[in-house]
């Protein structure tokens, strides 16, 4: 192995270990939100991609709900309850969107609000 490859591996290991739970959550929510938007903007032919992105979004919110339901979770109880409520909303509203009985926008708004919170930005600009 040459020095360049060793340096790249060493640097990659260090950057991975400095990521926080918050930054990982941000990235996961941002990715799934982008996929939902892209599929919606692509039109009816991209419906299978939209279904897949909504499924992944629901899985993500289920994981968040499980996390905040854990008694060892360190978030304040009120925030935990709010996140759990949002997870329930995402599940119910996603089913309505898939049944074509509701708009997609509220799901994107929920994810955007969480991204603002994780990124430390307020709702007002």
Topology:
Layout: H1 3-17, H2 21-41, H3 47-69, H4 77-98, H5 105-119
Q: What's the SSE pattern? A: HHHHH
- What's the total helix number? 5
The tally of beta strands, per DSSP, is 0
Helix content: over 70%
Shape: globular
Q: First CA to last CA: what distance?
A: 50 Å
Structural class comes to mainly alpha
Largest sheet: none
Count of the separate structural domains: 1
Low-confidence stretches: none
The overall pLDDT, averaged over residues, is: 87
Beta fraction of the residues? under 5%
What is the rounded Rg? 18 Å
Question: Which features does this protein show?
Answer:
125 residues, 5 helices, mainly alpha
Question: Could you give a quick summary of the protein structure above?
Answer:
The protein is mainly alpha-helical and 125 residues long. 77% of the residues lie in helices and 0% in strands. It has one domain (3-119).
């Amino acid at each position: 192995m040459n020095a360049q490859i060793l340096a790249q591996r060493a640097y990659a290991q260090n950057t991975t270990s400095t990521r926080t739970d918050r930054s990982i959550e941000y990235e996961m929510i941002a990715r799934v939100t982008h996929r939902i938007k892209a599929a919606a903007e692509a039109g009816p032919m991209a419906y299978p991609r939209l279904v897949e992105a909504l499924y992944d979004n629901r899985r993500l919110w289920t994981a968040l709900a499980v996390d905040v339901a854990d008694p060892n979770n360190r978030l304040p109880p009120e925030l935990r309850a709010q996140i759990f409520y949002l997870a329930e909303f995402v599940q119910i509203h996603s089913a309505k969107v898939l049944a074509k009985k509701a708009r997609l926008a509220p799901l994107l708004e929920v994810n955007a609000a969480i991204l603002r919170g994780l990124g430390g930005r307020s709702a007002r600009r």
